[in-house]
Structure formats: structure tokens, C-alpha cells
From TrEMBL:
It comes from Halopenitus salinus. Coiled coil: none annotated. Keywords: Cobalamin biosynthesis, Cobalt, Lyase, Metal-binding. Pfam families: CbiX. One of its GO terms (molecular function) is metal ion binding. Signal peptide: none annotated. This is CbiX/SirB N-terminal domain-containing protein. The keyword Metal-binding applies.
């Protein structure tokens, strides 16, 4: 019996923080890829420390719903799951290439295939493009549009920017958007100056965040000049300095992210059958794109 556990940060303060995790778990559960699908959180219940005890299967695939490799994926999650023999070198990663490590859970004895975060998987590139399609309502979005991929950026974790640059480069190589730029909240080039970085009139802005929260709902819209007060809302698209800004909100809320979770598990050896194609079809219908 193979089981899937999707682990995420969660929040005591923002009840919407865990919504994408539950939504993607429901999508995967509905296509029958695993005999059981569970969720676990750092800041909500069920807690990471207890989640494996809710799983009946002896073989468990754990996929972190995080953007980058760092403190949570390398230290917190393995510690809370009590993965025997864990060492970050088991991933052999350069900050982008974490794949999977097979370990034993010390207190339950289960075999755990611990996967890299969804944010660094190549399939996340497709989710970013789909997010642009969703916000513009155009399944062929690209020509006449620029794309900004926005990350937090931090000197404390250099891997934070690596994921942003990685996907911006991959989308640029697709040659479908007029311009593609990686922007950040806390380092240069900053999202505050979004219109300074593009000549194209229409700019789609997609934050590479898992859930909508303080940064994506308040900081970024105000920083870009979409509104003076996030509580009054803003238009999509919004006119800013001669540009139309199509603000998409957190990429992690895009239904297609369920596909990346499955891709991570499949890369670790899970038998997902035809569930990948089923999820892609299900999520395309969910976004109204026939």
C-alpha cells in the first residue's frame, strides 16, 4: 500500500494558508493515484510530528509544498518526521536538484521516500505559465505580454532566489512571452519598480508563493502601486505608469500544482499510473480552459 503525505507550513494567523494544500490533496485523492492521501503542517493540525501516525501504509511518499530548499525542507521536516539517518547530503543537491531520499521513520518503522520541494521541480514552470493563462483568460497568452516571476528573496537563504531565476530562465527559453523577468520583494531587482523593468505594455505578475497571505495579498499589490490600501481592492488588469498589470496572486493556488506533487512522487518511484494525465485534464477544466 503506497501512501502520499503532502507537508506544508500552515499558519496560526491566516486560515487560508492551508487551503491550497487541502485542495491539491483532494485533487490527487479523486484521481486515485494513492490508496491514501494525508496532509501535515508545521503550524496547523495535523502536525508534522504526528502525521505519519495517521498513515496506514508502510510505504510513504512525502512531498514538501515549499518553494525552495532550505531550513524547513532540510532541517525541520526531516526532524519532525523523525527520519533516521537523514543528512542533507542524501539529496546531493546544488540548491535546485533535490530529488528524493529513502529513509525509515524512527517511531513508526515506515519506509519514507522524502522528496524535494515542489518549487524547484521543472514541472512548476508549466504551473507558472498556466497561472498567466488563468489570470488573463487567454489559453495562448504570451504574444504581446511580458511575465514577471516574483519571489521573496533573502540573504539568509541563497536558494530562495535560485528557484525564481530557474523558472524565469525556463520560461524565457520557451520564447512565448515578449519579456520575462525575475523580481523580488527583498532584493534587487525589486517588484516595487515593476514597470521600470518592462517595455511591453501588458505585464502578468505571478508570485512564486504557495499560498496567498500577507505578502501576496497586501505587500506586493501595494508595492507595485495597484492600490494604496489593499483593503479597498484593485482591478485586474490595473493601470500603473502606462502599463497594464495582470496580477495573478500566489502560484500555489493554481490547481495544476497537484500535477507537480504527483511528478515529485513519481520521480521517487511511486506508481501513479495514468493519474498525471488525469490531473492535467481535471485542472484544465477547473480553470475553465476547454
Amino acid at each position: 500500500m503506497q501512501s502520499l503525505v503532502i507537508v506544508a507550513h500552515g499558519s496560526h494567523l491566516n486560515p487560508d494558508s492551508s487551503a491550497p494544500t487541502h485542495d491539491h490533496a483532494d485533487t490527487i485523492r479523486e484521481v486515485g493515484a494513492f490508496e491514501e492521501v494525508r496532509t501535515g503542517f508545521w503550524k496547523e493540525e495535523p502536525h508534522l510530528r504526528e502525521v505519519l501516525r495517521t498513515v496506514e501504509g508502510e510505504e510513504v511518499y512525502v512531498v514538501p509544498l515549499f518553494i525552495s530548499e532550505g531550513y524547513f525542507t532540510e532541517q525541520v521536516i526531516p526532524r519532525e518526521l523523525r527520519l533516521s539517518g537523514w543528512d542533507v547530503d542524501r539529496w546531493g543537491s546544488d540548491g535546485l536538484s533535490a530529488d528524493q531520499a529513502t529513509l525509515a521513520a524512527a517511531d513508526t518503522g515506515q519506509t519514507v521516500h522524502y522528496c524535494g520541494p515542489v518549487g524547484t521541480h521543472e514541472a512548476m514552470t508549466d504551473v507558472l505559465v498556466r497561472r498567466a493563462e488563468t489570470v488573463t483568460g487567454d489559453p495562448d497568452v504570451g504574444e504581446g505580454f511580458a511575465l514577471a516571476v516574483v519571489g521573496h528573496g533573502t540573504e539568509r537563504n541563497e536558494n530562495s532566489a535560485k528557484a525564481i531565476e530557474y523558472h524565469a530562465d525556463r520560461i524565457r527559453d520557451l520564447d512565448c512571452f515578449e519579456e520575462v523577468q525575475a523580481l523580488y520583494m527583498d532584493e534587487e531587482p525589486e517588484v516595487d519598480d515593476v514597470t521600470d523593468h518592462f517595455e511591453t505594455e501588458d505585464v502578468v505578475v505571478v508570485p512564486l508563493f504557495i499560498a496567498d497571505g500577507f505578502h501576496t495579498q497586501e505587500d506586493i499589490p501595494e508595492d507595485m502601486g495597484l492600490t494604496d490600501d489593499y483593503r479597498t481592492g484593485y482591478s485586474v488588469p490595473a493601470e500603473v505608469d502606462g502599463h497594464r498589470i495582470w496580477y495573478a496572486g500566489a502560484v500555489g493556488t493554481e490547481p495544476l500544482l497537484a500535477d507537480v506533487v504527483l511528478e515529485r512522487a513519481a520521480d521517487a518511484g511511486a506508481d501513479v499510473g495514468d493519474s498525471l494525465s488525469a490531473v492535467r485534464e481535471t485542472t484544465r477544466v477547473a480553470t475553465g480552459d476547454d
